[in-house]
Every structure is written in structure tokens, then in C-alpha cells.
Amino acid sequence: MTKTKILKSCIAAFGLTLALSGVAHAVPASMSVIGRANPPIGAYEFCRDNPSECDQTYADVGPVNLTEASWKEILKVNYQVNSTVVPMTDQDIYGVEEKWAYPQDVGDCEDYALEKRKLLIQVGFSPSDLLITVVLQPNGDGHAVLTVRTDRGDFILDNMQNKVMLWSETAYRYLKRQSVTSAAGWDKIQDGRATVVGSVGQ
């Protein structure tokens, strides 16, 4: 299937996605934030080395209005980055265990998230609605995704798949995400869907 056909099929499902996100959920469509959190070490070092990326503060004007146009941009950026960046670990790229950076053809999960965030800001999304988020995978490994806050709920852009889903529909355990008012600030997430034994990056 061509990229155009994939995007058209995803956009055609727009109405269904909105309908589903409007249905009452056992878990809210938007994450619950319960206080401040320490940034992941990779995020701290990224901000230290790239202060212009993190020294801005934003006014939180609320989640973006999810229209057909904004949904199309979300799907397009997620697919574009997933299909052009080759997954590779920081150890293989930089020789270190953890390094956050914009990908140059290769990258790992947080690099994908950084690139998607940058591209969505370029097409008009507010930085306060584009939040890099740290999660646990079902196997207990740490992972990073991009959360897009919308009036229909928090949607997840993931380098492991092209489908964009509500956070509550994923199998991840949510730990923390960037603050809506500062790229350098981080907030702890209340994920009440399951009990997790142990966690990372807290």
C-alpha cells in the first residue's frame, strides 16, 4: 500500500476515532498529572546542551481542537518519521547508554519523539500540547513516546507502530511526561489501569 493510500485510510477512520474517543471510558481519555517529577537523565542533558530548546515557558491554553486537518497532520508526521528514521540504540550511534538528540537518519525512541514534536510545532501545534512521555513496556523496558493533547483525549505517537491511539488504549504503563508549561519541566502521571512491579526513570 502506498503512503498516500495509508494516510487516506487513516483519515477515513477519523470519524470513527473521534466517536470512540467520545465514548465513556473506564479510564479518562486524558492522563491525570499528580505533581512534579525529575526529568529523565537524557532530557536533562539534552536541555543542558541545547538551552534554546528548553528555556521557553508556555501559557497553557488547553488541548488542541482535534479537527480533520489537525488529525491529518498528526498521522502524516507520525508516519513520515517512523518511515524515514532507522531504529538504532544510543550505544550503537554515540557509544553511550543514553543520549537525546534529533535523529540524522538513525535514532532511538526519544529521538523519534523529539523529531515528531519539532515537525508538529513547525505546522502550528502548540509546544504545550506536544509532550515527550516516559512509559514502561509490558516487558518492563523503558520507552519514550510523544503525547499529543487534544480535546478528544491524549493521543500517542510511537516509533513502534504507525497507528495513533489514545493513551488508555495502549499497553504501556505511563510514568512521567514533559510539563505543559515548560519543555524542561516534567510531571508525574497517575496511571490507574494496572499495578506495575518496579519502574524506571523515577
Descriptive report:
It contains seven helices and nine strands; from the N terminus they run ααβαααβαβαββββββ. The chain is an alpha+beta fold. It has a single domain, classed as Roll (C8orf32 fold), CATH 3.10.620. The strands form two sheets. A seven-stranded antiparallel β-sheet has the order 1-9-8-4-5-6-7. The chain has a two-stranded parallel ribbon with strand order 2-3. α1 (3-12) runs antiparallel to α5 (68-84). The chain starts with a helix and ends in a 12-residue tail after the last strand. Keywords: Signal. Residues 1-26 form the signal peptide. This is Putative transglutaminase-like cysteine proteinase.
**Could you tell me the radius of gyration in angstroms?**
16 Å
Shape: globular
Mean pLDDT, all residues:
86
- Give the topology string: H per helix, E per strand: HHEHHHEHEHEEEEEE
Number of β-strand runs: 9
What is the helical fraction, as a range of percent? 25-40%
* Biggest sheet details: 7 strands, antiparallel
Question: How many separate domains make up the residues?
Answer: 1
- Beta strand %: 15-25%
What's the CATH architecture name? Roll
Contiguous low-pLDDT stretches (5 residues minimum) are: 1-25, 195-202
The separation of the N and C termini measures: 41 Å
Signal peptide: 1-26
Keywords: Signal
InterPro entries: Transglutaminase-like_Cys_pept (IPR010319)
Protein name: Putative transglutaminase-like cysteine proteinase
